[in-house]
Amino acid sequence: MKLARTGPRGQEIPIALHADGRWRNIAALVGDISPEVLSPQRLQALQQALQETRGANLPVVEPGRYGLPWLGCGKFVGVGLNYADHAAEAGLPIPTEPILFTKHTCCMVGANDPVVMPQDARKCDWEVELGVVIGQRARYVSEADALSFVAGYCVVNDVSEREYQMERNGTWDKGKSCDTFGPVGPWLVTADEVPDPQALDLWLDVNGRRFQAGSTATMVFGVAQLVSYISRFTTLYPGDVIATGTPPGVGMGVKPQPIYLKPGDEMHLGIGGLGEQRQRVHAWDARLLDA
Ligand code: ZN
């Protein structure tokens, strides 16, 4: 099942892709896509309702802008250097344990919303990543059980300002949570449609040039390991999301000179089966944050 929210900012309606290939307004079934809706029981009930009614009574929707695919994300956990080849391009050793950082949830925006550079930013960079969305409370869960706590998956662009991240006396969080640095979506794909999260292709283009091309098969720590690991340091709640690290090809790693984003650039990224995002980069303009 694919779940999304479409409409102008603050006025999104919840939609689901029906088997007939058309999006349906599911407000009558769920209200909105809140964390509670992401539980295994509620997702199963929703799927059943969609199948039984064939969406008959649900209005067909032609999605416009995609907002956040679900509401109520309490934590946006990032994982650093989780692809061996990306660690190499960053000139850093492959981690022996997952590196965790925080993207504050206020950085989250819709999949194709503008990315706005902070006022004095010089080193804005891109990172296509598999987002893992939690569906039920996870606390000290085993690796064997970990995937049963996952509601679904989505595309994340872990937009990063490298000077803030690396040169401003720590922590990484400084360069990870600026407004608009967390495009998520366009939709949430429920876990039943992603039988193997370690077999997904990821890619990212800037202005039509392919910079990133990888596979979740080369993660250092896989999704089950990450959910289990993180749940030992903080309780994961429904609606929380984990950005699981990026494959090689970020701007910082381009030789001989790094390439960073500038106003007017367009990022286009996607993950097989999870959809695509497209963001235009803008110089600082506070009005864009509320548009
Ligand atoms: Zn990242």
Task: Walk me through this protein's architecture.
The chain has 291 residues and is of the alpha+beta class. It folds into 2 domains: 2-61, no CATH class; 76-290, Fumarylacetoacetase-like, C-terminal domain (Fumarylacetoacetate hydrolase, domain 2, Alpha-Beta Complex), CATH 3.90.850.10. It is built from 7 helices and 19 strands. It has a 10-stranded mixed beta sheet with strand order 4-3-2-1-14-11-10-17-5-6. The chain starts with a strand and ends with a helix. Zinc ion binds next to loops.
Keywords:
291 residues, alpha+beta, Fumarylacetoacetate hydrolase, domain 2, 2 domains, 10-stranded mixed beta sheet, 7 helices, 19 strands, globular, binds zinc ion
% residues in beta strands: 25-35%
Helical element count?
7
The CATH architecture term of the largest domain is Alpha-Beta Complex
CATH classification class of the largest domain: Alpha Beta
Number of domains: 2
Largest sheet: 10 strands, mixed
From the spread of the alpha carbons, the general shape counts as: globular
Strand numbers in spatial order across the main sheet: 4-3-2-1-14-11-10-17-5-6
User: What percent of the residues sit in helical stretches (DSSP H or I)?
Assistant: 10-25%
The unreliable regions are none
Question: Would you tell me the overall average pLDDT?
Answer: 95
Number of strands: 19
Write the element-wise H/E pattern from the N-terminal end onward: EEEHHEEHEEEEEHEEHEEEEHEEEH
Structural class: alpha+beta
Over the alpha carbons, how many angstroms does the gyration radius reach? 18 Å
Bound molecules: zinc ion
- What gap, in angstroms, lies between the N and C termini? 29 Å
Briefly note the CATH topology name of the largest domain.
Fumarylacetoacetate hydrolase, domain 2
